[in-house]
Write a structure and sequence with these properties.
Elements (H helix, E strand, L loop, with lengths): L3 E5 L4 H12 L4 E5 L12 H6 L7 E4 L2 E3 L2 H11 L10 H15 L8 H11 L3 H26 L11 H15 L8 H11 L2 H6 L10
Parallel strand pairs: 1-2
Antiparallel strand pairs: 1-3, 3-4
Length: about 220
């Protein structure tokens, strides 16, 4: 029986981050799908809200510990299964990796998550293309800043020559960028790192299309 349980939605970029981290650390986990659209969104059910009052995914359970946010989940995984390390122990290097993570976690992804896009449709009459344009705008701004950081700190991966939490955050955001048809041609470091990561088995196993609840 797996030590970890992950409540996830195949297309959720936040869930995707934790799946990558689990796969990099070679930790088996039980996948429990939470459909974010069906019947108004299974994340709003009372039983799920008892687990996670925010009504979001992912939600990671390990023994008697439950964690609702991807950053907290990855930090926890580093604490209980330190190898391979995803956030460096060196204070400066660790802060640099966290900075890259937070550029996506707080500066890009929240502006184009499902709840925001649904709100824009309901209250501001944005159609599908309007919501896609909104998403591309914020991703382009964020990726431009992220690319500049990579010019200084990247090696083979976002920070140095081994995968870190920053790569766990970047690859799902690139997945979103492709969904919304953002031209990635202006971001050569992001493109190069994405190609490197996507060739690795751990990233392949975490990819949305191969999850148990994936849909065409």
């Amino acid at each position: 029986m797996a030590d970890f349980v992950l409540y996830s939605y195949w297309r959720s970029s936040c869930s995707y981050r934790v799946r990558i981290a689990l796969e990099l650390k070679e930790q088996a986990y039980e996948y429990r799908g939470v459909h974010l659209v069906r019947d108004g969104g299974e994340q709003h059910r009372s039983d799920y809200r008892q687990l996670n009052p925010m009504g979001q995914v992912p939600y990671l359970i390990h023994k008697n510990v439950g964690l609702a946010q991807s950053m907290a989940a990855i930090e926890y995984l580093d604490a209980v299964h330190p190898q391979p390390r995803l956030i460096p122990t060196d204070p400066v290097d660790g802060a640099r990796v966290r900075q890259l993570c937070e550029m996506i976690n707080t500066g890009i992804q929240p502006l184009q998550n499902l709840g925001v896009l649904q709100y824009l449709g309901r209250h501001h009459d944005l159609d599908g293309e309007g919501k896609a344009g909104w998403s591309r705008h914020w991703m382009e701004l964020g990726f431009s800043a992220f690319e500049r950081e990579l010019e200084t700190h990247a090696g083979k991966f976002c920070f140095g020559d081994t995968p870190t939490a920053a790569d766990c955050f970047l690859i799902p955001q690139v997945y979103n960028a492709r969904r919304f048809k953002l031209d990635l041609g202006a971001f050569p470091h992001i493109t190069r790192i994405t190609e490197t990561c996507e060739a690795m088995p751990a990233f392949k196993r975490a990819e949305p299309s191969v999850q148990p609840d994936a849909q065409a």
